[in-house]
Specification:
Blueprint lengths: L1 E7 L2 E6 L11 E9 L2 H8 L8 E2 L4 E8 L11 E3 L10 H4 L28 E4 L2 H4 L1 E2 L6 H4 L5 H12 L6 E5 L3 H12 L4 E6 L3 H9 L4 E4 L5 H8 L5 E6 L4 H10 E9 L11 H6 L3 E4 L7 H9 L9 E6 L3 H10 L6 E5 L1
Parallel strand pairs: 9-10, 9-12, 10-11, 12-13, 13-14, 15-16
Antiparallel strand pairs: 1-2, 1-4, 3-5, 3-7, 3-16, 5-6, 6-8
Length: 347
């Protein structure tokens, strides 16, 4: 089968690889019908997330069940499904505590042997372990594109909003207008925030998309000082909560300084290196900081919100390409050519 292979640092290529096979009775083989490129794929390619090279990239997918192990009960051949980047088992200590993203028996698709050695989703077929626990049926009314982002960027944005403790009427500042930040903006409005301030760089297309998804105010960080601007918009008080979705040290510091006394900062941007947080300011202002990976147990809930019309992430799809074009797609995504936000790939 064809797949996007990662043979050495800074290199990726579409090549023929061996089609996956069942390794456990709880596995399924899925024919991938849609996948997409994520910022963490770029982090792996460039080495900011270290890994042992020589594997297929990708961790987001929609697909059709092709083959099932003998102990799989909830899925059959032909079912349309999606699943998380971390295919959790559902019965280990961490899963039972609600920490499915940190499943003790899982790995991460397309991330190397350090993270379980699970082959990636930028391929025609994938093997998914623990199928009954981690997979979700896709409602008939929803298309592949409508649910493409539920497992990763939407789950991440939704988790960031949950950790921020946003209440109806709150003012929220979202730092970073990339795919995760845009999902956080949509989820913040869904949670009842009356004001959502999008803080981004001088990328007019992404900031316009932020408005489309619910931002009430836009701050161009390269044109104006974000903290001063947030204070002006909130009559000197600061935002009730801030979500940092870029991983930038400067943005993390601005998020801390842009919230009110006893405000909350939710960090979900992945930083490629250690960052400095002004801890003395956090302490004296009683600021709460939450951070971490997405709760991938929210997939079914998010599909329900999409099906009911409360969430629509289709505007994030700016490009549609085939698997034979994926090398060019990765390059476009990294360079942000042609107003790229998300590129969906159809094998």
């Amino acid at each position: 089968m064809k797949a996007l292979y990662f043979p050495q640092l800074n290199k990726y290529e579409l090549r023929e690889v061996r089609r996956p096979e069942l390794q456990s009775e709880t596995d399924v083989i899925i024919k991938v019908t849609l996948t997409t490129i994520c910022g963490s794929d770029i982090h792996l390619i460039r080495g900011s997330i270290p890994s042992t090279l020589g594997y297929v990239l990708g961790h987001e997918y929609v697909g059709i069940v092709e083959q099932v192990g003998g102990e799989v009960r909830n899925f059959k051949r032909g079912d349309r499904v999606t699943g998380p980047p971390v295919p959790f088992c559902g019965h280990c200590r961490n899963c039972l505590d609600g920490n499915k993203t940190h499943c003790l028996n899982a790995g991460i698709h397309g991330s190397g042997i350090e993270r379980g050695g699970l082959s990636g989703t930028h391929a025609e077929y994938i093997r998914v372990p623990h199928a009954d626990a981690c997979l979700a049926h896709i409602p008939e009314a929803l298309t592949d594109e409508q649910v493409m982002f539920v497992s990763d960027i939407l789950s991440t944005g939704y988790s960031a909003v949950e950790r921020a403790g946003i209440k109806p009427g709150d003012t929220v500042a979202v730092f970073g207008a990339g795919p995760v930040g845009l999902c956080a903006i949509a989820c913040a409005r869904l949670s009842g925030a009356s004001r959502v301030i999008a803080v981004g760089r001088a990328d007019s297309f992404r900031l316009e998309m932020a408005k489309r998804l619910g931002a009430t105010d836009i701050i161009c960080a390269s044109c104006q000082e974000p903290v001063t601007s947030i204070r002006e918009l909130t009559e000197g008080r600061g935002a009730d909560a801030a979500i940092e979705a870029s991983g930038s040290e400067a943005a993390i510091q601005q998020a801390v300084r842009g919230v009110k006394i006893n405000g909350t900062v939710s960090l979900v941007g992945i930083s490629g290196m250690p960052v400095s947080i002004p801890l003395h300011e956090v302490f004296y202002s009683n600021i709460n900081i939450n951070m971490g990976l997405a709760d991938t147990g929210n997939i079914k809930r998010l599909m329900t919100l999409i099906e009911s019309g409360q969430l629509d992430l289709l505007p994030l799809i700016t490009h549609r390409m085939g698997l034979n074009e994926i090398e060019r797609a990765v390059d476009m995504f990294e360079k942000r050519d042609e107003n790229v936000i998300k590129i969906v790939i159809r094998p």
